[in-house]
Amino acid sequence: MATVKAIHDFHSHTYLSDGGLSPVELIRRCAVNSYATLAITDHSGIGDLGRILSTLRADRDAVREAWPEIEVWIGVELTHLPPSVIPQAAYKARELGAEVVNVHGETPAEPTAPGTNAAATRCELVDLLVHPGLITEEDAAAAKERGIFLELTFGRGHSLANGHVAKTALAVGADLLVNSDGHLPEGLLTTTWARKIARGAGLTEAQADQVLERNPQKLIERLRLRSKYHQARVM
Ligand SMILES: [Zn+2]
Ligand SMILES: [Zn+2]
Prior knowledge:
By secondary structure, the protein is α/β, with parallel strands linked by helices. The chain has helices at residues 23-31, 49-63, 86-95, 116-121, 137-146, 162-172, 191-200, 205-234; strands at 7-9, 35-44, 71-78, 100-104, 128-130, 149-153, 176-179. It has a seven-stranded parallel sheet with strand order 1-2-3-4-5-6-7. α5 crosses α6 (162-172) and α7 crosses α8. The radius of gyration is 16 Å and the shape is globular. The N and C termini lie far apart (48 Å). It binds zinc ion (2 copies). One zinc ion binds next to loops.
């Protein structure tokens, strides 16, 4: 089985929500474990956005120069909000400096409110709908229309629907990513796990290459462009 060259992971957690590591330890462990890209995306509603994003920014900025081998993005996973509140929360998250906005999708493992997938895939401020469970073709098509990525996940329980997510995304041409949803060191991706997740969801080797290499580059380019624009505006 071929392995990916580097890991790009856009969904992870620290002790700022329900993960076990500090932001700095998470970055360190990923940096020494073949990660080229890490987005730290702690769970949040609306009230917690400022605390999470300011802590993540300070820690990420403190280690950025010392560990250039890993590109770290800060963000949030908007989690268990009523669907009607998602656009407002995504707006606030961006305003407070979120570089990546994930929405916690309708995983089979948790009672996420019905309508969450629909709300997330209609919101231009969302980058990624994570573990979307039994997503409909209509919602997957809405994600494609807005360039919102759909996740094949390593998260236990959430991953039960990976096959369905892959099939539905491929049917409408929505872009997939493989992410860890890591909360602890053992929940992080390795190059072999990343490919097993992609292949196990039913993708061919060529489709897995797309999802593990080209799709991450597409999102990274968007994030870099956005941060350049943001810096230009601040200066
Ligand atoms: Zn969690
Ligand atoms: Zn998560």
